[in-house]
Amino acid sequence: MLFPLHLKELQHLKTQLMNLYMMSSYLNAYPQSYVTSVGEYLLTLPQQLEPLAEGISSSEANDEAQFFATEWMFK
């Protein structure tokens, strides 16, 4: 026995599948490279700013800390 096709349901299913496909390509499982770079910089931030927080007294150490802080800021 043949059953009637419900074209409305097929169209609805097709729309749902297209939406799912669009979302899966938009929401990638892997992070974008710029997000990874930002995360790496944020992880190095405490190391770069620690010498400045300790109140460095020698000018050589202060210059080195300033160099690292400036280098980090311009990456």
TrEMBL record:
PANTHER family: CONSERVED OLIGOMERIC GOLGI COMPLEX COMPONENT 7, CONSERVED OLIGOMERIC GOLGI COMPLEX SUBUNIT 7
Record keyword Transport present: yes
Chief site of localization: Golgi
GO cellular component: Golgi membrane; Golgi transport complex
Compartments where located: Golgi apparatus membrane
Pfam families assigned to the protein according to its UniProt record, in alphabetical order: COG7
Similarity remark: Belongs to the COG7 family.
Listed InterPro entries: COG7
Keywords: Golgi apparatus, Membrane, Protein transport, Transport
Name recorded for this polypeptide: Conserved oligomeric Golgi complex subunit 7
Recorded superkingdom: Eukaryota
Membrane topology annotation: Peripheral membrane protein
Organism of provenance: Trifolium medium
GO BP, one annotated term: retrograde vesicle-mediated transport, Golgi to endoplasmic reticulum
